[in-house]
Design goal:
SH3 type barrels, mainly beta, single chain
């Protein structure tokens, strides 16, 4: 099965004619209407967005074949995926989360750290989560200073472990702390 990227999650029913709240994970929320059929992770079910309009923080969408509130209610919580190759190319220093998850994490000195298991954003910037073979996961800023190299072809990210000391508010003037820009899913 080709690599898939989660582009939306179906929320609660909206109205009585089968519309649903659709939470999209694309830069342009309406991009999900242009990908064609969206499927569940296992590929067992497929849905096509027939119509969508903007709601408050989500889309209100009608899905082909879903015509009643009862049918819409049964879809609540389903995540919808699209094949990775249907998504647009990324810019330089921009990555899809799906492209990063699973990469080996290695220090700039060549020491293995583990594998990338997630990219998070809690509002203050992107964080890369690395799971070592044993022990607790590591959460590091996903910045050029900490992750100077993303080598998709080589299947790894290079990590410059920060020398973090609590209460130390000095930073090197030449550190590039500009954020990387991972994308959860694609947009034209």
């Amino acid at each position: 099965m080709p690599a898939q990227v989660c582009v939306a999650r179906i929320g609660t029913a909206h109205g009585v004619r089968g519309a649903v709240k659709l939470w999209t994970f694309t830069e342009d929320p309406f991009a999900v209407t242009r990908y064609g059929p969206l499927s569940t992770k296992d590929g067992a079910r497929s849905f096509e967005v027939a119509h969508a309009r903007e709601g408050k923080g989500h889309l209100v969408a009608t899905l082909k074949g879903v015509t009643s509130r009862n049918e819409a209610e049964r879809l609540n919580g389903l995540e919808l995926y699209v094949a990775r190759e249907k998504l647009p190319a990324t810019d330089e220093d921009e990555y899809y989360h799906a492209d990063l998850i699973g990469l080996a994490a290695v220090t700039t000195g060549g020491e293995p750290l583990g594998r990338v298991i997630a990219i998070h954003n809690f509002g203050a910037g992107d964080i890369i989560e690395i799971a070592p073979p044993t022990g607790a996961t590591m959460l590091l800023p996903f910045s050029n200073a900490v992750v100077p190299t993303v080598d998709l072809a080589g299947g790894r990210v290079l990590i410059e472990l920060p020398a973090e000391i609590e209460g130390d508010d000095s930073t090197a003037a030449d550190d590039d702390l500009s954020p990387r820009r991972p994308r959860e899913s694609g947009d034209p």
